[in-house]
Amino acid sequence: MTFSKLKQLGAPPEDKDAYNCALKYAVHLNEHIKSGKGLIMMGPVGTGKTSLAISILRRAIEQGYNGYLISMMSLLDTLLVLSKGPAEHYLKFENRIRNCPLLVLDDFGAEYDNKWVSSKVDSIISDRVERGKATIITTNLSVQQIKKCYDSRIYDRLKETSFILSFKGKSKRDPLDISQI
Question: Please, what are the domains in the chain?
Answer without folding.
Answer: 3-167 (3.40.50.300)
